[in-house]
Design a protein that fits this description.
Elements (H helix, E strand, L loop, with lengths): L2 E7 L2 H16 L4 E7 L1 H4 L4 E5 H4 L4 H6 L1 H18 L4 E4 L2 H13 L4 E4 L12 H7 L2 E4 L2 H9 L4 E3 L15 H10 L7 E6 L4 H21 L3 E6 L6 H8 L6 E4 L3 H5 L4 E5 L2 H8 L4 E5 L3 H10 L8 H6 L6 E3 L5 H12 L2 H16 L6 H12 L7
């Protein structure tokens, strides 16, 4: 007997972690018919896409309004299919505005709701905890402090650790293998590699790509031994970036590989805030975090985010500024280049930042998050716990 399961993974990192869950089910012989929102890579595993993460991952009020018709259509199709198929449960990953509305409708249909990857309601819009208590049956969280937050508010919760830990292979720290990979890209032993990571959403590319390219141009002009790699997120293609690059006056290689493989090539990274900053931190790569958005959205964000002086995940986890973070007008090429150059020119500073970042991995639990998630979901599938 196969089981129908609804999964909503509408963002790059979420779709990767949902993909890993599908792979775990497949490897363990768990016969699940999964449908909902996901990526092309999930589709290759038999997932039925009613909406693609590549199309729905938008951020900011104006960007959401521009796509509201498509988002609404997918929402109503998912609700209709949930009513028709009666899935064993729904697994909702992040994407809170969409998923909280969906959880309310699913609850009315009698579909259990498991939320994996908590939205940051502990940092902003804390009033949404009422929605979690009312419509979510169980939270599966990535950070230890999130477990305490939800327990305090009476929400059933499991700390599973961060699934990105499972993406870290020992080979990513093999200096000899890394030197050979860099050599194939024309990077010599005396070169410093600057990785540009403008984001995974098209709206992020619009706000970040030109700024990062101009920053790289300033860095290379002042530190000529810098080689620049532009890293392509899983939900995007090289052409998505090329189409928005325009004229550039610095040599840049565009790289599209698995995220951890790409990041491992870098000495320093300029990263749009999000899950990518955590991946960079896990690989102990010094970075500068930046974020820009539509001015009106930024105005609202500054007033909604309360109780935390940081927006970068690495700094939030550590409770202090381990890496610089620049927001909106402050994230301009001159200031970003100054922060990058401080790292490029000073090996001692890079070493100190790497030592700080080493602590990040230790605070994220152990490997095996996806297996823990699968074990918890076995209960909803009516199966015994895995051995």
């Amino acid at each position: 007997m196969s089981d129908s399961v609804l999964i909503v993974a509408a963002e790059a990192s979420s779709s990767l972690y949902a993909q890993r869950l599908l792979e775990t089910w497949d490897a363990g012989g768990t016969d699940v018919k999964a449908f909902g929102i996901g990526s092309r890579d999930m589709e290759k595993l038999g997932f039925e896409c009613l909406g693609r993460s590549e199309d729905l991952a938008v951020v900011g009020l104006q960007e959401v309004l521009a796509h509201i018709s498509d988002i609404r259509d997918v929402f109503h199709e998912i609700v209709a299919e949930a009513e028709r198929r009666k899935p064993r449960f729904a697994l909702l990953l992040d994407y809170p505005d969409f998923n909280f509305r969906l959880a309310k409708r699913l609850k009315a249909l009698g579909v259990p709701v498991v939320y994996y990857i908590s939205p940051q309601i502990w940092a902003w819009r804390k009033g949404r905890i009422r929605l979690v208590r009312k419509y979510v049956d169980r939270m599966l969280v990535l950070f230890p402090f999130e477990k305490g937050f939800y327990e305090k508010h009476g929400v059933p919760v499991d700390f599973v650790g961060h699934p990105a830990l499972d993406e870290i292979a020992d080979s990513l720290f093999d200096e000899k293998a890394l030197a050979e990979r860099r050599r194939r890209l024309g990077i010599g032993p005396g070169d410093i590699v600057l990785a540009l990571m403008p984001g995974s959403r098209r709206s992020e590319i619009k706000h970040h790509l030109r700024v990062q390219l101009e920053t790289a141009s300033l860095v290379v002009a002042r530190a000529p031994n810098t080689k620049v790699l532009l890293l392509v997120a899983p939900t995007l293609e090289r052409e998505d970036l090329r189409a928005q690059m325009g004229a550039i006056d610095v040599p840049i290689q565009i790289v599209k590989e698995p995220p951890m493989d790409m990041i491992s090539l870098a000495d320093v990274a300029l990263v749009a805030s999000g899950t990518a900053t955590l991946m960079v931190g896990m690989l102990e790569k010094p970075m500068v975090v930046m974020y820009r958005m539509n001015p009106f959205t930024a105005f609202l964000a500054k007033r909604l985010v309360k109780g935390t002086p940081f927006f970068g995940m690495v700094n939030l986890i550590m409770g202090r500024e381990v890496v610089p973070e620049l927001f909106q007008e402050a994230a301009n090429p001159e200031r970003l280049a100054a922060e990058i150059l401080a790292l490029v020119r000073d090996p001692g500073k890079r070493a100190r930042v790497r030592a700080d970042l080493r602590e990040v991995r230790g605070r994220l639990g152990e490997k095996g998050a996806t297996r823990k998630v699968a074990e918890i979901l076995d209960r909803y599938l009516g199966r015994e716990a895995r051995a």
